[in-house]
Specification:
The protein is of the alpha+beta class. The protein is built from 16 helices and eleven strands. The protein is globular and about 75 Å long. The C terminus is likely disordered.
């Protein structure tokens, strides 16, 4: 399934998100003072250019600077290169028509290049400066690395952070606040939002609504052709994509690190999560509003349902698919809800200490219904009234389940499995110790990843402390490595690669 293969996304995005499919050409000017600040070597190894350059890190850094170190040209002169600002839709982009500060340059997405033509009319400079800044780039990168290790289908990881040589000074109530402008580089990917209309788009171009509708039709056509089986094959792959996305959000809820900005533009078409500006650690399994305009944690599948409805409307009305789109919508919504509930149950069993195989055998076998009922009964009192935490989490007022409660859940699962003739493996001393270790890591608070605290730490440890690039480069790498090493709790990616 081509849409579900992350390594095929860069080439597919470059072909499906071009000018011919209605996306916007953008003139670019080279940034002469750009430098590589941080390289994610693990992600770089997946780039064909890395292989072509023989795995030479210095040569690859030079390649990235040549390919990605640009800003949008404003002087009207001959551009050094052209990129593409990709149109996309969905309900959370306001009057914008797609990427407002990022462009596709070959197989790379480069964020922070300046205001694109897709920034909606009336959006003020403060909310659409076009820049990306050191603190947000570092926070985005380290959260992406943590969740890539913890979630069953991973994330769209940062490939590199480049400095531009420019500094933005913000006027705040506490005085001037300088921030280095940077470029955040990722390998290109496709979003569900590429298949949705942008209903509130108000652009400077003539007939922006017509241009947006043309983009949806042409992008659906291109992806249907690439799927190898037309619209029906594309819809089947989208259904599996949304199942993966739903499973991811169920896991992030139980890991107490909800994505926050759940929208069709913040996920890839293979189910990976992307864009972590709203991500915040929370202190318990209560439901939290970590971002405005979304459903609270523990109910994020409802945001995916909104996306399914938007994509179905695009198929039905914009692409003229009619009744088949209605049938697909019903099926996809059902699959999203099933995947979320199943994801909650399976992830919880793993966090209690069962292996992926043990959890699946318990839920899929004769004991599945009884096990599901007991898990739901155990979770219910923890899912209290949703609490807003826009300004930081109330760490003093909530708590994770205690070891005694988790042991009781394990004992219940053992009794359920034994009753149905499919007992779990005996919990010998080694197994019991392993399960307790998993629980201890899971329930340890991650106050450091509270959104506001993490912002402050990233800013304080990097901005203003390092006047030369070599020192800043070392400090950035050290900060990302330190926080990722300290804050990864239960790496579900390594034990759950076969989960649906």
């Amino acid at each position: 399934m081509i849409l579900l293969d992350p390594n095929r996304h860069p080439a597919l995005a470059s072909s499906a998100l071009g000018v011919s499919t209605g996306h916007v050409p953008v003139p670019l000017k080279r940034l002469r003072r750009a430098e590589l600040l941080w390289l994610n070597t693990d992600e770089a190894r997946l780039d064909p250019a890395w292989v072509e350059l023989g795995g030479d890190a210095s040569a690859y850094a030079a390649h990235l600077l040549d390919a990605c170190a640009y800003e949008i040209a404003r002087d009207g002169g001959a551009p050094d290169r052209r990129g593409v600002a990709d149109r996309y839709g969905g309900g959370n982009i306001g009057t914008n028509g797609g990427s407002g500060r990022a462009v596709l340059v070959g197989p790379y997405y480069v964020k922070g290049v300046g205001r694109t033509p897709l920034v909606g009319l009336g959006v003020d400079e403060g909310h659409a400066s076009g820049g990306a800044y050191l603190e947000e780039c570092v926070r985005e990168s380290l959260l992406g690395e943590i969740l890539h290790r913890e979630l069953p289908h991973g994330t769209v990881r940062t490939l590199a952070i480049l400095t531009t040589g420019a500094v933005q000074v913000w006027n705040t109530e506490h005085g001037p606040k300088p921030e280095r402008r940077c470029l955040l580089v990722r390998r290109a990917f496709l979003r569900p939002a590429h298949l949705e209309r942008a209903p509130m788009y108000r652009g400077a171009e003539a007939l922006p609504g017509m241009a947006d509708a043309h983009r949806v039709r042409e992008t659906i056509r291109a992806l249907a052709e690439a799927s190898g089986g037309g619209v029906e094959a594309l819809q089947a792959q989208l259904t599996e994509s949304f199942r993966r996305w739903s499973r991811q959000l169920a896991s992030s809820y139980l890991l107490c690190l909800p994505h926050g900005g759940v929208s069709s533009s913040n996920a890839a078409l293979d189910g990976r999560l992307v864009d972590f500006g709203a991500t915040a650690s929370v202190p318990s399994l209560a439901r939290y509003w970590v971002a405005s305009g979304n459903h609270p944690s523990g109910e994020e599948f409802r945001d995916i349902i909104d996306t399914v409805n938007g994509v179905a409307c695009a198929f039905r009305f914009t692409a003229g698919q009619g009744e088949p789109a209605r049938a697909w919508r019903s099926h996809a919504c059902e699959q999203v809800m099933h995947a979320y509930v199943d994801g909650l149950r399976a992830t919880l069993l793993q966090l209690v200490g069962l292996s992926c195989g043990e959890a699946r055998a318990l839920l899929d076998g004769a004991s599945g219904r009884a096990a599901a009922q007991e898990i739901d009964r155990w979770l219910q009192p923890l899912r209290r009234q949703a609490l807003p935490i826009f300004e930081g989490a109330p760490w003093h007022s909530q708590a994770m389940p205690e070891e005694r409660s988790l042991q009781e859940l394990e004992d219940t699962m053992t009794r359920v499995a034994r009753h149905h003739g499919a007992p779990l493996p005996a919990s010998d001393a080694e197994t019991a110790a392993r399960r307790r270790a998993v629980r201890a890591r899971w329930t340890a608070p991650r106050m450091r990843l509270d959104r506001e605290r993490l912002k402050d730490e990233c800013y304080a440890r990097l901005e203003g402390r390092h006047t030369n690039l070599p020192d800043l480069r070392k400090a950035t790498a050290a900060l990302i490595e330190e926080i990722v090493a300290d804050e990864v709790r239960v790496p579900l990616t390594t034990v759950c690669s076969q989960c649906p």
